[in-house]
Amino acid sequence: MVINEVFLGLNYTVKRIFPLIFILFLSAQLLAQDDDVQVVTSAGPPKGFGNFKLPRVNIRASCTVPKVTTSKAFRISYTGVYDAQLSLNFRIASNLNVGLGYKNALFTPQLYFRQKGLSTRLQVHDAFARFGYDHIFSDRGFVSFSLDAGYSYNKYTSVKFVHDTLNGKYPTYFGNYFLRPEISVYFLVEESFAFGFTFSYNYCLYPYDPKYNGFGSYADSKSTASNLIYEGVGYKNKANMGWFSFGFGFYYGFKKKTGG
Q1: CA gap 11, 16 in Å, rounded
Q2: Is residue 193 classed as helix, strand or coil in its secondary structure?
Q3: Which domains are delineated in the chain?
């Protein structure tokens, strides 16, 4: 069942992100024509990498697994499946860079709700601006510190209420702003491609509300999960949504073409 959820989410994402990938790739190729990066041979980056400038234009991507932390109501309702993002970035001074990107995440119900026959997924779509700094620590790697800030559109799918009279009473989507600090460690495997690990925290400026997905309508007095939702953690919950994400990161720099 979880595998089906992943494929459904990825299929949904690919249909929307492929045009973005094409646009980012074309834009980066054009903007990189006047890049001042040093030429790297097949043997790898040159000696003295500490003074080496990364390409002025680059694409960064990550695929991570989210772990819900803040908001007890959100934590007992959902578990993270994946959290993926893609951004186009520009070096503006030294190793400072800015960029624009898109992120998609998928969350599925916890066991308590799945046992009730619910498969209400939460799809997260984010558009963000990225502000980062790259610290080169060797001739083969660098650390990236960044902060993403943007707007998130969140959609519940397959919403099912315990009573049909509740259908259509509440919206099945909501929007919010978010902040996402991130640290990534990259290791160069080719002259313009790096692979590594990334760790981030996604903080939403919005509290979880179980009315929108119908979970609150399934509460009963015997369930620990539903008691938590009703006794000051759900409808009266003041904690904002948030999750940690850990996984793989990818970097591709667009280098100036040289003759010969």
Answers
A1: 9
A2: strand
A3: 2-31+56-254 (2.40.160.20)
